[in-house]
């Protein structure tokens, strides 16, 4: 049996398969499948045929040779078009003209796009002039063809064609293309052909069949252009998908004033409003609408009024055709059950559909369209949830740049924490705080941030760093606070001495204003206007639907009252990680912490800790109050001790004064505590093992606070490698509980659990689980230690790794399922085996990443925990994960609306 390489559509004898979605879409490409589908719906589609994506794949497999049967199949399909239209390709008297377009499965920039009016030559142009009775139209079409074919197939510069056209207009003293006469176009064509000859060394092809194969070849060749190849690499599009080629009878929007061409969306793609949104041009061909040579007019009266335009709408100029087009809009939406992006042409009062595809839209529009379509009975709630892109909700949660605003980009970094913020450039946390106190908005610019900068980060509207990745201190803290952050902007050089930063020869000084877009990773000069989010209405509706279906809980990582309140506002069902060290950095407490570190015996340490106790107790009480009735997981102290010590000379002097010791002594202690590799050093439970007083004080503060509020604290021990560490520290916590309960005469229920952040802990989870009421996967450290990859330094080379396909995504942003995920799975299985009711959650940054959340669903975690601003994203992603998991178990579980 010979392979069918060519599928016809739109003609009576078309042989496209009836179901043109799914596998057939892969064969015909998006454009071809939708043309065939529109034709089978009875919509007016000019007849044509699609050369399948398999031809593209075969072409490249076979040293750029076409399959042997292709020519005969193309000839036969061309005959069908000729029969349907009643004119012949290459006929000197009344020629059939064709359009040739590429069409991969997904639309792809970098590919050859379109050649129109193919089949014209010096002879057929005369036939077209006679048959149409319009010489000017014929030569206008011919010059368009020579230019498009010359540009996209023969590679002659578009600008050189434009120069010739401009010269002609100057010679004829006219402004618009439409004012040029037939003779002028004849002259332009002659010059265009001379240009092609000069540039390519060959005559412009006159044989229509050669033209057709030239254009088909150009489409297939464009699959391998550098731009297309790099687009595929970025978007994970396999090379063997190939592109299809669509060949279709031309219809003309440029044959007079009863002709037009246009593009439209079935709903407004920026707001989602349900009205027909689009533009058209009378007496024009498709490329004129996008080229911006003439101002397109709105399709509808409503659209015209919204734009404040007084150019007449199509609804007014061509009411009959408009009504037909509006019916097509309804038919397409009902059929595809989604907003469509369409192209059409009107030839002598007759409507033709040239394309339909799912329309791209803003996040706000996506939300409105999904909710409206459920209301209209077009889709189910589950489908609505699955259609929304969780990450795109980010756009709705933070102020975003006004899309209409002009921007001058200074440099780019990682999109570390979404939102857009403008402010005055400051280079230190203290300056940030001081200026914010004066009511100024500032952007804190640092090479990197450390816990000492927290107050400045809090005071700043946005944070910009030149080093560090997606889980660097700046990124994690900014996300937690909901501050916009661009991290690791490597091209930027900060000089603290001169209080300047530069990219190349562009210098920005302290006091200048910049804008950062943490969703896009862009840094811009000056203040770019922003727009505020709207979280009620459709947003709230979708969140409610998500909550109705999801299985996993969603908690927040939060420690400050502000973050906790924000998290609750976003629907968090508790706190999954309270990083207590962040509570120690408060300027009023840090001195007590330092005294504690300087103490050289346990009693002295206890004295210092006693001063911290009331503050810790107060913090916890406030947190418990905000989260009343919900679970709160408090992690005992984690970072290395030297992070708490003063670093700058001024800080050292100040601490020496307060502690009444010499600055030299402070420096000596700093040297003692300094670690070569602090991430693998004296941190996490290792602090509790060596200074049990610290954990004891923290446990006491938790119990004393919990007694007053209705809450079940979950006390979490970090960085466990062995079950012995947990056993020792759990005993300490339990003994503290007994003591507090005895002192107060009151009890409170609590649990003790552990983070799983080290491979050894995951592998020995069955030994650890007997002492752990819960496991919370700390996948930031688990990724760092499994891959042996520093979470603070990997950004330096991550892009090279991504480019070379070592990782599909940054493993600190999306869980490395094959490696780190395997450890999570092992720990879940081993933990459950010995403790079936063990509570399981995740609190690494991955807890807010949709792909990682899907993995968490698949291993059956009970909840995910993420930064407050990611809570809505996680709620939607968790709902999608549940729907997909269920659909995987029961193929028809995702119901389609009637
Ligand atoms: C983790 O390691 O994933 C975690 C949540 O802890 P931290 O980021 O505070 O190290
Ligand atoms: Mg950790």
Automatic annotation (TrEMBL):
GO molecular function, one term: kinase activity
EC number, as in UniProt: 2.7.9.1
Domain PEP-utilising enzyme C-terminal: start-end pairs: 536-881
Keyword Cell cycle tagged: no
Binding-site residues, substrate: 579, 635, 757, 778-781
Positions of the PEP-utilising enzyme mobile domain: 440-521
Catalytic activity: pyruvate + phosphate + ATP = phosphoenolpyruvate + AMP + diphosphate + H(+)
The protein's enzyme class: transferase
Keyword Lipoprotein assigned: no
Alphabetical list of SUPFAM superfamilies matching this protein: Glutathione synthetase ATP-binding domain-like, Phosphoenolpyruvate/pyruvate domain, Phosphohistidine domain
Coiled coil (UniProt feature): none
Domain Pyruvate phosphate dikinase AMP/ATP-binding residues, every copy: 26-63, 68-307, 323-373
Cross-referenced PANTHER family: PHOSPHOENOLPYRUVATE DIKINASE-RELATED, PYRUVATE, PHOSPHATE DIKINASE 1, CHLOROPLASTIC
Function as written in the Swiss-Prot or TrEMBL entry: Catalyzes the reversible phosphorylation of pyruvate and phosphate.
Family per record: Belongs to the PEP-utilizing enzyme family.
Name of the protein this chain belongs to: Pyruvate, phosphate dikinase
UniProt organism field: Micavibrio aeruginosavorus (strain ARL-13)
Phylogenetic lineage: Bacteria, Pseudomonadati, Bdellovibrionota, Bdellovibrionia, Bdellovibrionales
Designated gene of the protein: ppdK
């Amino acid at each position: 049996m010979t392979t069918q390489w060519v599928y016809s559509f739109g003609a009576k004898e078309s042989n496209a398969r009836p179901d043109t979605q799914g596998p057939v879409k892969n064969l015909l490409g998006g454009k071809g499948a939708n043309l065939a589908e529109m034709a089978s719906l009875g919509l007016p589609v000019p007849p044509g045929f699609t050369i399948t994506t398999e031809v593209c794949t075969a072409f490249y497999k076979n040293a750029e040779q076409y399959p042997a049967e292709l020519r005969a199949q193309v000839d036969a399909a061309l005959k069908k078009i000729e029969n349907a239209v009643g004119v012949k390709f290459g006929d000197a008297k009344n020629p059939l003209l064709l359009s040739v377009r590429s069409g991969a499965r997904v639309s792809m920039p970098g590919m050859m796009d379109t050649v129109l009016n193919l089949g014209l030559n010096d002879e057929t142009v005369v036939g077209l002039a006679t048959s149409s009775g319009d010489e000017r139209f014929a030569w206008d079409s011919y010059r368009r063809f020579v230019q498009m074919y010359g540009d996209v197939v023969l590679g002659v510069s578009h600008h050189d064609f434009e120069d010739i056209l401009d010269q002609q207009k100057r010679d004829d003293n006219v402004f618009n293309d439409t004012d040029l006469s037939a003779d002028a176009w004849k002259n332009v064509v002659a010059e265009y052909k001379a240009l092609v000859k000069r540039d390519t060394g060959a005559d412009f092809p006159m044989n229509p069949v050669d033209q057709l194969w030239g254009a088909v070849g150009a489409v297939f060749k464009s699959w391998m252009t550098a731009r297309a190849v790099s687009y595929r690499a970025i978007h994970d599009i396999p090379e063997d998908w190939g592109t299809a080629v669509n060949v279709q009878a031309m219809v003309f929007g440029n044959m007079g004033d009863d002709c037009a061409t246009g593009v439209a969306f079935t709903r407004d793609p920026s707001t989602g409003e349900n009205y027909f949104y689009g533009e058209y041009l009378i007496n024009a061909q498709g490329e004129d609408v996008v080229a911006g040579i003439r101002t397109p007019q709105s399709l509808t009266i409503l659209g015209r009024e919204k734009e404040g335009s007084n150019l007449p709408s199509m609804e007014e100029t061509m009411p009959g055709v408009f009504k037909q087009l509006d019916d097509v809009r309804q038919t397409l939406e009902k059929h595809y059950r989604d907003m469509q992006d369409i192209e059409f042409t009107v030839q002598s009062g007759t409507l033709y559909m040239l394309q339909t595809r799912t329309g791209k839209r803003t996040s706000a529009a996506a939300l409105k369209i999904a909710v409206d379509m459920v209301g209209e009975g077009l889709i189910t709630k589950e489908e609505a949830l699955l259609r929304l892109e969780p990450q795109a909700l980010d756009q709705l949660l933070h102020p975003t740049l006004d899309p209409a605003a002009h921007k001058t980009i200074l440099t780019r970094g990682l999109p570390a924490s979404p939102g857009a913020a403008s402010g005055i450039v400051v280079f230190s946390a203290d300056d940030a705080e001081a200026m914010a106190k004066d009511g100024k908005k500032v952007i804190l610019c640092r090479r990197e941030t450390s816990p000492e900068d927290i107050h400045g980060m809090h005071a700043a509207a946005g944070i910009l760093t030149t080093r560090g990745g997606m889980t660097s201190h700046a990124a994690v803290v900014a996300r937690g606070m909901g501050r916009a952050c661009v991290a690791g902007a490597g091209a930027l050089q900060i000089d603290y001495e001169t209080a300047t930063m530069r990219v190349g020869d562009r210098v920005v000084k302290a006091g200048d204003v910049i804008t950062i877009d943490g969703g896009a990773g862009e840094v811009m000069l000056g203040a770019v206007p922003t727009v505020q989010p709207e979280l009620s209405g459709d947003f709230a509706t979708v969140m409610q639907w998500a909550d109705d279906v999801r299985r996993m809980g969603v908690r927040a990582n939060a420690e400050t009252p502000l973050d906790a309140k924000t998290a609750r506002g976003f629907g968090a069902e508790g706190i999954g990680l309270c990083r207590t060290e962040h509570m120690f950095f408060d300027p009023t407490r840090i001195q007590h912490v330092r005294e504690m570190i300087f103490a050289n015996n346990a009693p002295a340490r206890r004295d210092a800790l006693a001063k911290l106790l009331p503050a810790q107790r107060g913090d916890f009480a406030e947190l418990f109050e905000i989260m009343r009735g919900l679970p709160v997981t408090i992690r005992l102290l984690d970072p290395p001790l030297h992070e708490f010590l003063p670093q700058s000379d001024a800080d050292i002097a100040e601490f020496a004064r307060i502690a009444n010791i010499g600055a030299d002594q402070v420096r000596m202690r700093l040297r003692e505590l300094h670690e070569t590799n602090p991430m693998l050093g004296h941190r996490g439970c290792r602090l509790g093992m060596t200074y049990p007083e610290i954990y004891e004080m923290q446990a006491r503060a938790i119990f004393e606070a919990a007694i007053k509020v209705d809450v079940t604290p979950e006390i979490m021990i970090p960085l466990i490698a062995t079950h012995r560490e947990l056993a020792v520290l759990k005993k300490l916590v339990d003994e503290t509980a007994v003591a507090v309960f005895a002192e107060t005469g009151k009890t409170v229920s609590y649990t003790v659990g552990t983070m799983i952040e080290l491979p050894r802990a995951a592998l020995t989870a069955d030994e650890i689980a007997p002492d752990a009421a819960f496991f919370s996967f700390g996948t930031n450290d688990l990724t760092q230690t499994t891959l042996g990859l520093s979470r603070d330094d990997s950004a330096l080379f991550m892009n090279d790794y991504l480019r070379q396909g070592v990782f599909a995504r940054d493993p600190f942003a999306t869980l490395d399922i094959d490696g780190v995920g395997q450890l999570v799975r092992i720990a879940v299985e081993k933990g459950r085996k010995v403790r079936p009711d063990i509570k399981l959650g995740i609190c690494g940054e991955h807890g807010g990443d949709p792909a990682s959340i899907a993995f968490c669903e698949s291993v059956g975690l009970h909840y995910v925990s993420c930064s407050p601003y990611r809570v809505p994203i996680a709620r939607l992603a968790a709902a999608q994960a549940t729907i997909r998991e269920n659909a995987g178990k029961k193929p028809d579980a995702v119901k389609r609306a009637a």
